[in-house]
């Protein structure tokens, strides 16, 4: 049976492909590689924290490690993982299309990703940057480390992101199947639309401000040097104008995944399709207005602090709407508790927990104590790992049969999910308490009284690493020994399950005509 | 007359859909470019708010004549490109090719004039980063920021103009070689969108660096 | 109750006037949000089990349940109101934390890599130890000399970033005497995690006596200083901890002794050892007139001129094998202090065989002899500007 994997098998057919499915697979492999790289950095960081003083690495190396852990995880994993991986693979199929709007640009986005990655890794290997992933001047202008390759690498990666965004929005507008209105699309498409808006509008601002850091660092332009009239605070404003929406780039696609998995596994319509669709745009829009909450202690005016604080409270409401909708979708469903749903339980728990600590830091007086401490580190890891990574793993298991044509072993899948969840909580929950106790972040050395919680956190990181390893082994093993996957292993009504596993090159054997909505579980399969 | 029609890609149902997608894609890309420049404009705005007098003096120090000539040249170029699009839609390919090439030429003239201005500044001892003897004679820190942002903004814009000139040259040659007809007009249209955008950015740079020179 | 919750959440002691009310908001926000989060999650789990699938037919259907507008709207409104309450309380507390009372006494604070310096209007200056009277409002006027730092006292729940080129102000009132840790909370380079100090809050009369000149050790035993020496390389034996709380240099016996005090006071000993141990910067032992290879390949003699230039513009002639992290001391050392440090270095170097100088310099000096006879000030200025790019004032 010819499918997109075996229709052509030369390496050149992969490297020159215009097939969005192959491009998606190559992105998935790439981001997984960088997840492992960033994860190794994190493990070393946690090992260093076993003792208050020097343990494993020098302070210089520690500073470089946390910088690169952040850079790799944010730009080489979290931002591209679900959109460029699963989005590329499934958006056209979910819309009943044969490809994305610009297939050659799509392939270009993969190569641009690799060029950016190589630049960044080159920076890692040769006097890697030690500025933190936030690159604050004046330190980033003055540091002797090689910030420039890393900065340029991130700049190039931004172009890959922008191309993906342009491609997705154009695809959604021009390639929907006949008769499919916007309100008929699967919710994952809405999530991709929302994230594409942020990618197009936010990423260029990051690009330009990092370019300015390159000019300051390598050509001594002094744009942020007070001795030459510059203002380091301006950098922070422009940097966070992108980097706050960036966190919504990292959470909206996972939210789209959750919408798909909850409805499929509960075999039920979403409690409110419109709530999920519109709240996506609420997040995309209001998310651009909250950046100042990263700067409450930086010397902004009190008026600014007040405005940003209340807007930050506002954006949390949209996420809460989604959480209620997903939870309510389970009510009176017909729920299959399988690995993807187990990951979604982990997502719900960790996202709500982490999100509520986000509401807490938006209370300005509380943030004064928490800013730049491990509380914030724990908060964003709860979202980025506890929610985003968990959703990525959920998506991996949910769509594995469709992408590879193989079923993984369900028992091992659940075991992996549980290990990942326990390891995650063990690693990051103690960090909330460390932040409360006053341990600042980016600290090579810490005061003795913080040691017990640090050791706990490090032990958790080993369990988390073990869990991820188990996931990797389970999935790879399924390629060798897994059962052949049926077209629709989950009895889902969403459109990607209406085609064989793996799909043929043109996505559908014949031009699809969707007679049911993707969530019409209350109707029989075929109209009478 | 041989009027080639662009190839219909397999995933589009018809050519108008394909053209529509190309135009939408270009608009979205231009949105990202607008945000790209907005970061630099924000820097300018913030620093101008910090140092209003020196920024005004700096603007007064720039050559108003050259700046205005450049504005005229870019606008004329954009006019040529609009006419080129009209010509292609009217199936007058040779005229279209000529006008497209003329637009590229206008861009080139713009770059030459801009280079001349930079040379004047450097001869005065004004270099990015507050280097050069001008800043020894004028030691207030705001001068360094003014001229660094001048070089940054005009330089970044010049990069876009250069890319535009290259694209225009390639487009003119392609239209000629492929013997394109009106059905390919959308491809010229999206090149036009890019060029007009670069033009609009200049229409912001012109007042910020040449016109805003008088006390409020 | 307050103390129980404070300990449960691992919060530090509440040693300032605002700490208790901030913690109260903390309990309130965390408590409500955690209860809400748990409730939602339990609902999800419960419904998943209660409504688990009994049949696995592809054709089975489920009822279509749509949330009514009333439910959605009600939940939304409740959340919005709740979050606004959080914000109102938090913001009003924040305003009170930011605006110093009129009667506050002022202390001037400078953050620099990697230490905190405090200057009192009465003339006292300390390093890394902020001595204040308890139960009095203290306003800090702060700036940075180089990169961004952040002044953070967990026990007071107070934090303020300091940026170069600007002044910031924050305030606190310590509610009881004690010693409270200061951390730098904005990443600032190599020894960011060693850039800490202590607030020492004294009883009012003890504070007056300290102001008048009594040593701090009479009132409180200071904890050991930031372990900068140990942090830096992790190698070598325990080097003496960075001295702290020095108010002024005591009467030296000799210039070399004075040099030792200055070197400690100004932070040189954080990176340079006196006993030959390898460290962040070259050791000063036997440095006097030593042949020293530079990073750019030249080999120079470490004479008075070179050592002075290294203090003023360290990046210009970096020694090979060392990281370029030394901050400049331009404007921070009196000429006599520079001399004292030179004397210190000479005193811990082996006596040189005569003649003391090398017969001729191993490297051509940068300016040809006699070129200073007719110096054009403008060109000199330009030369200085171009060569002092990374020196911060």
The N- to C-terminal Cα distance of chain A equals 31 Å
Structural class of chain A: mainly alpha
Order of helices and strands of chain B: HHHHHHH
Structure summary, number of beta strands of chain B: 0
- The name of the CATH architecture of chain B is Up-down Bundle
Low-confidence stretches of chain A: none
Alpha-beta classification of chain B: mainly alpha
Strand content of chain B: under 5%
CATH topology of chain A: Cytochrome C Oxidase, Chain A
3D shape of chain A: globular
Please, what is the oligomeric state? Answer: heterotrimer
Question: How can the largest sheet of chain A be summarized?
Answer: none
Question: Would you mind describing this structure in some detail?
Answer:
The complex is a heterotrimer of chains A (528), B (216) and C (393). In chain A, helix 13 packs antiparallel against helix 14. Chain A has a single domain, classed as Cytochrome C Oxidase, Chain A (Up-down Bundle). The longest helix of chain A has 37 residues. Chain A contains 15 helices and no strands. Chain A has 528 residues and is an all-alpha fold. By secondary structure, chain B is an all-alpha fold. Chain B has one domain: Cytochrome c oxidase, subunit III, four-helix bundle (Four Helix Bundle (Hemerythrin (Met), subunit A)). Chain B is 80% helix and 0% strand. Chain B starts with 14 loop residues before the first helix and ends in a 5-residue tail after the last helix. The mean pLDDT of chain B is 94. Chain C is of the alpha+beta class. Chain C has three domains: 78 residues, no CATH class; 129 residues, Cupredoxins -  blue copper proteins (Immunoglobulin-like), CATH 2.60.40; 133 residues, Cytochrome c-like domain (Cytochrome Bc1 Complex, Chain D, domain 2). Chain C has nine helices and twelve strands. In chain C, the strands form three sheets. A five-stranded mixed beta sheet of chain C has the order 3-2-1-5-8, with no helix packed on it. In chain C, helix 2 packs antiparallel against helix 3. The two termini of chain C are 51 Å apart. Chains A and C meet through helix 3, helix 8, helix 10, helix 11 and helix 12 of A and helix 2, helix 3, strand 7, strand 9 and helix 5 of C.
